[in-house]
Structure formats: C-alpha cells, structure tokens
Design goal:
Elements: E1 17-28, E2 31-42, E3 46-50, H1 57-65, E4 72-77, E5 80-81, H2 87-94, E6 96-99, H3 111-122, H4 129-139, H5 155-167, E7 173-177, H6 185-201, E8 206-210, H7 214-218, E9 223-228, E10 231-236, H8 238-241, H9 245-252
Parallel strand pairs: 3-8, 3-9, 6-7, 7-8
Antiparallel strand pairs: 1-2, 1-4, 4-5, 9-10
Helix pairs in contact: 3-4, 3-5
Bound molecules: adenosine-5'-triphosphate and magnesium ion.
Magnesium ion (MG) binds near residues 57 and 58.
Length: about 260
C-alpha cells in the first residue's frame, strides 16, 4: 500500500499561521525544558515534530491544549492569544483534538462504548451518532474487537481506538503524540493514508504529529521541526531538513535517509 500524498503544502502560496508559539520558555521547578522557543504551524499543514526522549514534544502539545501554561511567551491560534483561554474553550472554539502519547481510552468501556461516549459529546446531530461511530469502527478496522473492553485490546488496537475517538469531532487542529507507536506495518501505512486524507478532505485542517518513527512521519509531513537542547534547532520541508547540519549532528545522524 503506497502513500498517495498528492501535494505538499509548501509548494502552495498559503502561509496563514494556524498555531504560533512565540518566545516560549517553560521550567518544571528548577529544570528548564523549553528555552525561548518560537514556531509556527500553518493552516492546512501536516507538521512533524521530532526530537529525542524528554526534549519537550508532549509538553508542547500540553501547552497548545492548555494543560500547561508557559512561564514566558505567548501562544496564538488563528492569531488570537490563548494563554488564558481554558482547555475546554480551546477545544470547542478552535476544534482541537489530541491523540495522547499514552492512555486516552476508558479501560473498562468497550471499544464501541469508548467511541459512543465521545460521540455523545461531539456529534451534533444525534440521529447521526450511531452512523459516525460505526463509520470509525469500520475505518479503523475495529469490527472484530468492538465489544471488547479497552483494557483487553492490544497496544496497536488501543491506539487505533484513540485515533478514531480524536477524529470523531471532525477537528480543525489535530495533535497526535506518537500515533505510530505500536502499530504494525500495514496499520502504519493505513494511518499515513488516513492523515494525508485528513488534509485532502479539509485543506484548512492542520495536524501536528510527534513520533520516533521519523521516516514514517517525514513521509507525510509538509514541514517538520527538530527539537534538541531545549530549542528548535532546525525546521523545514523533510528533504531539506535531513540535510541540515545541526539536525544531522543532534538528531538524524549521518546515515538517516527518506525515500
Ligand atoms: N508535570 C511534569 N513535572 C515535572 N517534569 C515534567 C512534567 N512533565 C514533563 N516533565 C519533564 O519534561 C521533560 C519533557 O517531557 P516530555 O514528555 O515533553 O518529553 P518528550 O519529548 O515528549 O519525550 P518522549 O519522546 O519520551 O515522549 C522531561 O524531562 C520530563 O521529565
Ligand atoms: Mg512525549
């Protein structure tokens, strides 16, 4: 199964920023994690976020959703400063969905019940609820396990349930924290297609995706950023990024390639 990415957004003139982090610094106690980070993710873009363990990728997602507040700096969505906007309002007003790095499902509910619980909240037309849930079950090939409690699902199946839950609300901003983790080869390929389709279906939707499967992620990213040593050390389209000297020395190494 090949990835059909019809276009890369960087070839287009569209430059409208969707999410901006400006001069963000964040410490946990005395330990500084992010040091004066500035980054922009554009409307319609699939942006990859790469960096070693503990560099602050999940922390950046938490700053965008509102789970964490920065010590310094500003966060904007659609050019509106949102530092003081509460989590629920960010989710509703800007249609943000997140696939968290871990957890994200109700362990004692079945796969179907998990999706149904989210559909209760996010599907506006109640008569469409069952249809939307069934659509996700079929889309993510969860039919065989739909009546199994989430705690008994395999790692990859659980991940697929989380992704399906995040997409039920038809989000405008999709944040995915290690969505490829635990997926088998075909599921990885299928998820890549799903993400590319998210962009094709709605070319204003933006996706920020963090993962250690760098090649799988870069294959579908319009642009990516590399974090290291508390900073953004490189950013750009994948083909340029992998040639960047800082990115090579601090993250990719000399032999990494994408095709
Ligand atoms: N609530 C917290 N309290 C204290 N330290 C924290 C907290 N959350 C995160 N950290 C620390 O912040 C750093 C960044 O964590 P984060 O989870 O953002 O890393 P990451 O880049 O997502 O790593 P990984 O690739 O392993 O998922 C880590 O050193 C972590 O221990
Ligand atoms: Mg993380």
């Amino acid at each position: 199964m090949g990835i059909i990415k019809k276009f890369y957004i960087t070839k287009f003139k569209k430059e409208r920023p969707k999410i901006e982090l400006k001069n963000i610094s964040l410490s946990f106690g005395k330990r500084q994690i992010l040091d004066n980070i500035t980054l922009t993710v554009r409307e319609g873009e699939i942006c990859g976020m790469l960096g070693p363990n503990g560099v602050g990728k999940s922390t950046i997602f938490n700053l965008i959703t509102g789970l964490l507040k920065p010590n310094f700096g500003s966060i904007y969505i659609d050019k509106k400063k949102i530092n003081n906007v509460p989590i629920y309002k960010r989710a509703l007003d800007f249609k943000i969905s997140i696939v968290p790095q871990s957890g994200g499902v109700f362990s004692d509910l079945t796969c179907y019940q998990n999706l149904n619980a989210i559909a209760d909240l996010v599907v506006r037309e109640k008569k469409n609820k069952t249809f939307e849930v069934e659509k996700m079950i079929s889309k993510f090939e969860l039919d065989a396990v739909k009546n199994i409690k989430a705690k008994y699902l395999s790692g990859g199946q659980k991940k697929r349930v989380c992704i399906a839950m995040a997409l039920l609300s038809n989000p405008k901003v999709v944040l995915m924290d290690e969505p490829f983790q635990g997926l088998d080869l075909l599921s990885t390929s299928y998820l890549q297609e799903t993400i590319v389709n998210l962009q094709t279906e709605d070319n204003n939707r933006c996706c920020i995706i963090s993962d250690h499967a760098a090649a799988d992620l870069l294959k579908i990213s319009d642009r990516a950023i590399i974090l290291a040593n508390k900073k953004v050390i490189a950013h750009g389209p994948p083909k340029e990024l992998i040639k960047d000297e800082s990115a090579k020395s601090l993250y990719f190494g000399d032999t990494f390639n994408i095709n």
